[in-house]
Amino acid sequence: MDINTHLAIDRRLCGTPVAIDTRYARVEMALTEEMTADAAGLVHGGFIFGLADYAAMLAVNDPNVVLGGADVTFLKPVAIEERVVAEASVEDVKGKKHVVHVMVKRETETVFRGVFTCFVLEKHVLE
Fold first, then answer.
1. What is the rounded distance in angstroms from the CA atom of residue 72 to the CA atom of residue 95?
2. Is residue 68 part of a domain?
3. Over the stretch 72-94, which tens digit does the pLDDT of each residue have?
């Protein structure tokens, strides 16, 4: 399936799509030194959120999708030099509103989960 949204995103910072299907996306990301928050190598949660958000956008896969809100939980810390995978699936659609569930895992361990409320607009949000 072709990617129709977020075409200019920096995949080093938000992950690389590895599977896109109707109402589903899987995105992988290598955690790098640029993402570190401290000397111990803890990755800043914003990068994990960005990965999850990107996966949610790809699960909707519309050029005019935007994030309206998110209810998220960070379950485990992650460190540089690890690899994480986000899986997103659209669970409900009501008009323009799409509810997307996202889980981020390190191997088999869930490190983040969230419910993203996305909206598909008639035109680009900046128009």
1. 23
2. yes
3. 999 999 999 999 999 999 999 99
pLDDT, mean of residues 4-25: 96
**Residue 91 within any structural domain of the chain:** yes
The reply to whether the predicted model has a pTM over 0.70 is yes
CA–CA separation, 103 and 95 (whole Å): 24
Q: Give CA–CA dist 12/76, Å, rounded.
A: 21
Q: Which amino acid is at 4?
A: N
The phi, psi pair for 64, rounded to 5°, reads -110, 25
Q: How many folded domains does the chain comprise? A: 1
Could you give the angle at the alpha carbon of 123 between the alpha carbons of 122 and 127, nearest 5°?
145
Token couple for 29: 């990301």
How far apart CA 12 and CA 100 sit, in angstroms, is 23
State the maximum Cα–Cα separation within the chain, in Å, rounded to a whole number: 46
* Helix/strand/coil for 5: coil
The verdict on residue 99 lying in a domain is yes
**Burial code of 70-105, b = ≥16 C-beta within 10 A, e = fewer?**
bebeeeeebebebebbbbbbbeeeeeeebebbbbbb
